[in-house]
Amino acid sequence: MNTDKQYTLELMEHLLVLKTPDEMEAALRALLTPAEFSEVTKRLQIFKMLKQSVPQRQIAETLGVGIATVTRGSRALKAEEE
Q1: Virtual CA dihedral for 32, 33, 37, 38, nearest 10 degrees?
Q2: Which helix (H) or strand (E) holds 72?
Q3: Residue 48: what pLDDT?
Q4: 51 falls in which pLDDT band (50, 70, 90)?
Q5: Phi/psi zone of residue 69: left (φ > 0), alpha (ψ -120 to 50 degrees), beta?
Q6: Maximum distance among all alpha carbons in the chain?
């Protein structure tokens, strides 16, 4: 197994043993910088809003992110559907 795959698997195993939202939040805050944590939470909101057909510019304004970030989220969702 290559190193990246091994590291990814270990991360997934680490997160999957967590039982509560508080445990998950603590683990993610320990792994990520405050900026990374904030970015991940906003990405989830981008996905949710895109699925609700909110216009990309509105999403960018609401969440305070760049339009390119929203577009990247849109492409990721489309790739997920394929």
Answers
A1: -170
A2: helix 67-81
A3: 97
A4: very high
A5: alpha
A6: 43
